Amino acid sequence: xxxxxxxxxxxxxxxxxxxxxxxxxxxxxxxxxxxxxxxxxxxxxxxxxxxxxxxxxxxxxxxxxxxxxxxxxxxxxxxxxxxxxxxxxxxxxxxxxxxxxxxxxxxxxxxxxxxxxxxxxxxxxxxxxxxxxxxxxxxxxxxxxxxxxxxxxxxxxxxxxxxxxxxxxxxxxxxxxxxxxxxxxxxxxxxxxxxxxxxxxxxxxxxxxxxxxxxxxxxxxxxxxxxxxxxxxxxxx
Amino acid sequence: xxxxxxxxxxxxxxxxxxxxxxxxxxxxxxxxxxxxxxxxxxxxxxxxxxxxxxxxxxxxxxxxxxxxxxxxxxxxxxxxxxxxxxxxxxxxxxxxxxxxxxxxxxxxxxxxxxxxxxxxxxxxxxxxxxxxxxxxxxxxxxxxxxxxxxxxxxxxxxxxxxxxxxxxxxxxxxxxxxxxxxxxxxxxxxxxxxxxxxxxxxxxxxxxxxxxxxxxxxxxxxxxxxxxxxxxxxxxxxxxxxxxxxxxxxxxxxxxxxxxxxxxxxxxxxxxxxxxxxxxxxxxxxxxxxxxxxxxxxxxxxxxxxxxxxxxxxxxxxxxxxxxxxxxxxxxxxxxxxxxxxxxxxxxxxxxxxxxxxxxxxxxxxxxxxxxxxxxxxxxxxxxxxxxxxxxxxxxxxxxxxxxxxxxxxxxxxxxxxxxxxxxxxxxxxxxxxxxxxxxxxxxxxxxxxxxxxxxxxxxxxxxxxxxxxxxxxxxxxx
Lengths: 237, 479
Fold this sequence. Notes:
Chain A is α/β, with parallel strands linked by helices. Chain A has helices at residues 18-30, 62-73, 76-84, 94-99, 197-212, 223-236, and strands at 2-8, 35-41, 54-57, 88-92, 102-105, 108-111, 118-134, 142-154, 161-165, 175-176, 178-180, 183-186.
């Protein structure tokens, strides 16, 4: 078995340890005897959506996000077909904002892919700090770090979690991120997956199910992961 | 002679009280066993908020500010050492306390009671985000910018924000000359954007195995896009990070030819290179040391310091193309006596064993420290301490941008992690296939390794862990 992971535009979107999310997925597959191949797509490379099982779209500064926005518009139909077909996507920070309808900054308007029913408006101050979420379908809390100027407002879409500590989508409505089909969009980096192996495994399970029709993953020794996660929960809650 | 600051009698009196109160506070704090690197400054600024201006105004020759993500403290301290070896009196914030209060402390420690200062130069390490506050009181003649890398994201948002803060600060002193690393496209664009006069240093030949290494690891590069037009920069070669020989294929922005250039770098037990074609040799480690030394070299050349021209009479010896060539004999001699300061590759001898303390506070710094450690192929042990206090950056995501797989080297016998974020660090290593054990305190981690083996021990720490561990290692050396 082998999963194909597409890391989109790491030459532009490389803030906040996105490499950690990739590393986490690869290792957790490897430890289960499943191969993984990571393809790094540069800005103008043609993307092989048909041969991809998991897409990671990370965060960048506003300047770099603008370039990515223009590029993504050209993939609009292919990306949408991939997502509607149950393709797995993890979109973090800037990548998350571009999954929505638009991102309005003080300098302009970035059109998103409208895969998630949400929009984002830039404001100050930046919402920065440790963050803890609860997602009722997951066995324990999700922890991470957020750092975003954008305030995201959800339409008809499920949040990734409810905020137990920190700001979340907009610092007001107690919700963080968004999920639709097999897309997870979130502001959590830190990076997200290593300290939240349940989220990593959720993504891997979705991708394996779609590709091979297998459900369920063999358990791993997550003691270190659980301790690192628990430390944040105990410290801030 | 610098223009002195006009102060009224009342202001002068207040300044004198401020300095004396600060000195008393420092003495009290030392009695209580504290380092107190910023306390005198805080005390003085409480009495006289603009105390820095009249103190800095008394510096006879030049004030040099040193900014940049990595290498500030080392560069500033070596510069100070060189100027002192010239027989000059120098004010210097040696311990790297680089916010306004720390800088005020350095002046107060150097001043006589009553506020009189006897100094030829001031070498000031300045925090990039605080530069605006410092430059509103102190107008440096030179600013050395070492480099610009990603650092402490949650404090400043992004590197763009740091650059904007620094640009604003530099423009407050339009006559200040910048000494810039030509190999760093971010530093060069910043210099061009400020409109200040600037002069460049750089390394003209690719050094070590940097090229394959950086391509393989995909090391995070901040400056890969042209700041002027947004195009992807093209490189003839990389040194590390975004440093190298670059050019923009679209708008023509490119690495300027450095006035003060190094070449023929050899990284081994000793570090060798040529500065303007002249041999430099040092025990300092790592390619970054070449840049730090070149920055110092550039100032000494700009200033026409005698130590580079031992035989010259008062010929014109400043700037590029002097009438006579400099001589590095004295430069190398001073370097050979230079001891790394305060956690910058600082070596302690404990129970007959070498313990090396190094500050590593961002991915580039960490990668460079790992490289420097592996230049020494003998067996070794490693302690890593990671905190997340606000001076460290509360966000520890950057740990995932460090190439820790490099420490899966067979010369490294055992790794222990500690600090507030020890669990994050442990997890980080797990995903590079490295087993590490946890220690409750950094001291316990160090003791464990001293007990268990006789190999050299490397201690890599981030910022707030540095002070207490440094103190501990000093006390342990004395025992």
